[in-house]
Amino acid sequence: MEFGEILRLSFAAIRGNKLRSLLTLLGIVIGVFSIIGVMTAVQVLQNGIESGLSNLGAHTFQIQKFPVMASQAEWLKARNRKNIDLRQAEYVASRMTHALYVGIESFDNGETVQALSGEKTNPNVTVFGENPEGISTNNWTIAEGRTITAADDRSGNRVVVLGKDVVSKVFPRGGAIGQEVKVDGVRFTVIGIFEPKGAALGGPNNNFVAIPLSTFMAYFGGNRRSLNIMIKAKGPEYYDDAVEEARFLLRTVRKVDPGKEDDFSIFSNDSMIATFNDFTKYVKLGVGFISFISLLAAGVGIMNIMLVSVTERIKEIGVRKAVGARKANILSQFLVEAIVLCQIGGVIGIFVGILAGNLAAMALELPPVFPYDWAALAVLICSIIGVIFGVYPAWKAANLDPIESLRYE
Amino acid sequence: MSTMIRLQNITKVYQMGEEQVHALRGVSVEIQRNEYVAIMGPSGSGKSTLMNIIGCLDTPTAGLYELNGTNVSEMNDNDLAKVRNKEIGFVFQTFNLLARSDVLHNVELPLIYGGVSSHERKRQAKESIARVGLTDRSHHKPNELSGGQRQRVAIARALVTRPSILLADEPTGNLDSKTGEEIMGLFDILHQEGNTIILVTHEEDIAAHAHRAIRIRDGHIERDELVTNRRVIQQAVHLSA
Ligand SMILES: Nc1ncnc2c1ncn2[C@@H]1O[C@H](COP(=O)(O)OP(=O)(O)OP(=O)(O)O)[C@@H](O)[C@H]1O
Ligand SMILES: [Mg+2]
Q1: pLDDT digits (tens, 9 = 90+) for A53-69
Q2: How far is B113 from chain A (nearest CA, A)?
Q3: Which CATH number is B222's domain given?
Q4: pLDDT confidence of A44, banded at 50, 70, 90?
Q5: Atom 5 of ligand 1 has which residue's CA nearest to it?
Q6: Is ligand 1 within 6 A of the CB of residue B15?
Q7: H-helix or E-strand containing A145?
Q8: Which residues surround ligand 2, an ion (CB under 5 A)?
């Protein structure tokens, strides 16, 4: 008996009892949905965090006053830390031996950029003050015009490089380079435009501008702010040494007593991803456990319905046996039916789960995710459930006596 | 004539709790190719039990059963399934069709388990349906057919594998006498075409179509004789729907 024929039989039987099949499927759908939904959402967030951090390039780390992804208590404690000021940052920058670039950065949120023509942005633009190397450590690339130079920084030039979102608001007809804009009322000359970046979770998107750090300090109250130091190691093999070197230098210049903990936070993409994964591990475990329970319950439901189905079809089984069906034929018919039932539930669960998980992506303006590995796993789990809970009813059907089945009313 | 069925001292005992029911108490009989045999007897005498054993749906408690020279009484479930599939066409009093499937699929069923390819299966099933005159009903479900038509579907299904024997346990039991005659006409034609037929019946009228009548009482063969005044429907009966 060909497999196609068995499949056809299964679908016919399931179609013959649409409502009952659907209700039975529901448990599987919910179990698979919760796995896939959460895994998709977690993956979306993970991608978001990775791309949000992608302004930090490879083997790059950042030092700042406040910790990233910390508890409220840790954050409150960090408030008592001294700011990282320009002197400290330059002390580190000038002495680092394992660094390719040391970027120094400060920023201010919620500014307005306005062209002389009057076109302006909403007051939600982030202004970054960057030393020239900060452009590199942020992984920003220039699409048009030029970048911020050491000379700009030294002289405190009022020059600005615009992010894509700002350009499209303020210069919708192009021709931005060389024009004047007002950033928070201060006149700047546009020297360049950044290559747009993928939207980033919690990041500045492309709604930002960058000006020389010294200019920022002068016009945006930079002395009150704590600076961020971004360090790109010379290569992956120098990374750990660079972190230690930077920590040592900063502790020295900030006069942190030996034995006391750092009064600043160091993080990299990897450390942030690790922190996030640590957190999602528990979410995954919890959801995995709940899904496991609900799939188990669903499996029992499948078994129950298959037993009912066998009882209802005793006569049919008798007829099939009378015309020459072997045990194996009947066994595979009912087993495949249970598996198909589970798989239909699984496919619906995967579909709805991916949809729900990607709603998170849409809400956060992140690219959608298709978790192939989890989907494949779900299909596998559904088959296993189908086999485990389908085998007993199928075995029962296969071993029915032909005469008694035919006589069954 | 070659011996098709050889039964030697077949017994069948059903264990009902403490009690033993002796359905067959030593039945010995030989049936040749192209015989047309009626098995008769009062209710509970063991006719169906005998038919089920001949049809390999059931196994005897003791005794020897040879079908076409092979010992069937010692076969396992899988071999019996194969014999049922290839050698035997069974027609039941209650038709026993698959209610959800149409005529074509019902008739195809033995070929599916016989491993016949889909295309060939359809061809043979259609041929068999044509033989019982139901071509125009191929895509009807059993509940859309009359009793006589359902029994013709069952006969088409029994014939489709070209079995060695056609077994029918009270094939007209659920039909009115006119429809019963129609079905018997079909069996007569099938017999004339060379098929071996064994049928169980209560009615002398029906038994009169056969060549030979075996009378059973209390699990014994009481009489085994040739039918003298046969009623063969020579003319093909009107087989329209
Ligand atoms: N599965 C069974 N368990 C117990 N006893 C059975 C079983 N099947 C048949 N019998 C008994 O065996 C005897 C023969 O039954 P069988 O069905 O062969 O009779 P029959 O001649 O076909 O009768 P009818 O003309 O009423 O169909 C009866 O006494 C019946 O009660
Ligand atoms: Mg009977």
Answers
A1: 555 667 888 899 888 76
A2: 6
A3: 3.40.50.300
A4: confident
A5: B14
A6: no
A7: strand A142-145
A8: B 48
In degrees rounded to 5, what are phi and psi of residue A385? Answer: -60, -45
pLDDT score of B209 more than 50: yes
* Site to substitute for ligand 1 among B49, B202, B215, B217, most atoms within 8 A of C-beta: B49
The sign of the CA dihedral B127, B130, B135, B137 is negative
How many domains, chain B? 1
Closest-CA distance, A298 to chain B, in angstroms, reads: 27
Would you say the CB of residue B42 lies under 6 angstroms from ligand 1? no
Contacts of A189 (CB under 8 A, 6+ apart): A157, A158, A159, A160, A178, A179, A180
Q: Would you report the helix, strand and coil content of chain A in percent, each value rounded to 5?
A: 60, 15, 25
Instruction: Assess if residue B11 is contained within a domain.
Output: no
pLDDT tens digits for range B125-163: 999 999 999 999 999 999 999 999 999 999 999 999 999
B10 belongs to a structural domain: no
- ipTM of the complex, rounded to two decimals: 0.93
Judge whether B69 lies within some domain.
Answer: no
For residue A336, which of A378, A406, A398, A403 has the smallest C-alpha distance?
A398
pLDDT (tens digit, 9 = 90+) per residue, A185-216? 899 999 999 988 765 444 447 889 999 999 99
* Tokens standing for residue A133: 């190397």
What's B70-103 look like in SS3? EECCCCCHHHHHHHHHHCEEEECCCCCCCCCCCH
